[in-house]
Amino acid sequence: MIKLKVKSGDTVKVIAGDHKGLTGKITRVYREKNKAIVEGVNMVSKHTKPSAKNPQGGIVKKEAPIHISNLSLVSGAADNKAKGGAKKDSKKAKA
C-alpha cells in the first residue's frame, strides 16, 4: 500500500475531472481504494426506499469518493496549492 499525502481534515483542491477547481475539506479517506470524500465535491443523487428512519423515501444528495490523484493540498493562508512530492532539480534540467 502506498503512503497517502492527504488525511482527514486537510483542505484540498480538485485538479482533474468534472469538479475541477472546487475546494473542500476531506471528511474521510479510504486507504485501500486510494479515495477520499471531500465536502461539497462529487455530489451524487441516491434513491432511497422508505424506511423507519426516512418514512418518505426519495432522492438524497450525498458526496461520493474521489481518487486522491485528482486532489492537491491547499496551503493554509494563501490559496496556492502546495505540491507534495519529489522536487525537480533546476540545475540538472538546464545542463
Low-confidence stretches: none
**Shape descriptor:** elongated
- Through-space gap between termini: 36 Å
> How many strands in all?
7
Kindly estimate the percentage of residues that lie in beta strands according to DSSP.
25-35%
Trace the largest sheet across and list its strands. 6-3-2-1-7
Largest sheet: 5 strands, antiparallel
Q: Indicate the structural class.
A: mainly beta
- Please state the CA-atom Rg, rounded to the nearest Å: 18 Å
Note the run of SSEs as H and E. Answer: EEEEEEEH
Number of distinct helices? 1
How confident overall, as mean pLDDT?
84
Helix fraction by DSSP (H/I, runs of at least 4):
under 10%
Q: What is the structure about, briefly put?
A:
5% of the residues lie in helices and 35% in strands. With 95 residues, it is mainly beta.
Please outline the helices and strands.
Blueprint (H helix, E strand, L loop, with lengths): L10 E4 L8 E8 L4 E4 L4 E6 L9 E6 L2 E2 L3 E3 L16 H5 L1
Antiparallel strand pairs: 1-2, 1-7, 2-3, 3-6, 4-5
Walk me through what this model shows.
By secondary structure, this protein is mainly beta. 5% of the residues lie in helices and 35% in strands. The chain has 1 helix and 7 strands, in the order βββββββα. It has one helix at residues 90-94, and strands at residues 11-14, 23-30, 35-38, 43-48, 58-63, 66-67, 71-73. It has a 5-stranded antiparallel sheet, with no helix packed on it. A two-stranded antiparallel ribbon has the order 4-5. The longest helix is centred in the last third of the chain and has 5 residues, at 90-94. The relative contact order is 0.23. The model has no long low-confidence stretch (mean pLDDT 84).
